[in-house]
């Protein structure tokens, strides 16, 4: 057989269609609830299954409510609410690796009745699929076919790795602690590297702890810690490009109090689930042009796309905003605490060599009104835009995770809330590269036999030996050996003499 098919793999990555779903969570307090003061909600995908045309996944909505009971006590209840959903697309196929992202975009207290609280949580599901696609090219084993080849650069998907790392941190205090009301932990990946058989993922864990001191004062403190974990990935090499993300399963965060006569200590253990994907640039030798000295050829050339991954970028900035209480709400005489601190990325894009991240930071302020001796809460939604230089081509796929830190809420003049925080966003970016190869070739009719022993052809100015030989349908070595005085590419139109062996 003159031609054989050969194959090589290239990486492909496509985004899953975004969608919204609502999950209803029913929480039991164990006491009669008079008021919900603060709501903290996180969501994540846990199990993912890829089938033909559909991705099924299950997840959990982890909710923490700071409540006031009919006895005036403030307590916290936690709940994990399971849910399931799916993505459908003709592009989805078994064997592909699906990575599902779930984020909370809104929540509402639907009802409070006795010990029961019903919370409706609106989620946005998104994600992407990564896999290798096979590209066909040809190999030639026919002495009558002349061809030239070239090395082309391709991107291959090496594989993915998952793992969980536990980060233990602590806050040392000079006072004893009555009880912990709320723990909010988030993680962000800041750096990824590849090694021989592994990928290394490092980042920050940010935890805010709200507690009640022995003097019945509401206090809050931040813990900033780091993590670095090597995830085993057998086919990874130092030359690989890596992208990764991490999230905290809020339901799995544990908090302990250790205290004595000198003061207290809060120990927080935060499990961070990490996921990383590795890609590698490789070189493949392919035939890029060919012809036959005996037959017409039917040649098919096709283009293909592959996904290239850019280095991770970290974008940091400040968030500032304010809120004025509506006239029908009582004034603030004392700000007790804030909770439900979170950030939602609403949009991200590239423009003029920079990456922009837009979002909304949220916090709930709980305050006391002296006139009515009552507690009230108000939610602050603060929009923000941060940016940083990022020199990549526009039009690719951006995935962004963000966390807030050092959130500070203050009140002025009894009716104005001011919000100040730091935000940190981790940006992964991939783009499509296009290339093309000869995918098929077959022989057709034979050329008519030459009935002459010599021929004079003309090589046009600037033409190389390959171009002249292909046009004359002879081998390069025949032209070179029979016209040794000619140097290619020719500078001027040049006559060439070809001799043929005639069969009697």
Provide the fold topology.
Blueprint: E1 3-15, E2 19-28, E3 33-51, E4 54-69, E5 74-88, E6 97-113, E7 116-140, E8 145-172, E9 177-195, E10 198-213, E11 218-232, E12 241-248, E13 254-260, E14 263-292, E15 295-309, E16 313-324, E17 334-351, E18 354-369, E19 374-389, E20 397-412, E21 416-446, E22 454-459, H1 465-472, H2 476-482, E23 494-499
Antiparallel strand pairs: 1-7, 2-7, 3-4, 4-5, 6-7, 8-14, 9-10, 10-11, 12-14, 13-14, 15-21, 16-21, 17-18, 18-19, 20-21, 22-23
Overall mean pLDDT stands at 94
Domain module tally: 4
Q: What does the radius of gyration come to?
A: 33 Å
What is the element string, with H for helices and E for strands? EEEEEEEEEEEEEEEEEEEEEEHHE
Describe the protein.
The protein has 504 residues and is mostly beta strands. The protein has four domains: 1-139, no CATH class; 142-293, no CATH class; 314-426, no CATH class; 448-499, LysM domain (Membrane-bound Lytic Murein Transglycosylase D, Chain A, Roll). The protein is built from two helices and 23 strands. Strands 1, 2, 6 and 7 form a four-stranded antiparallel beta sheet that branches. Strands 8, 12, 13 and 14 form a four-stranded antiparallel beta sheet that branches. Strands 15, 16, 20 and 21 form a four-stranded antiparallel beta sheet that branches. A hairpin with a 3-residue loop joins strand 20 (397-412) and strand 21.
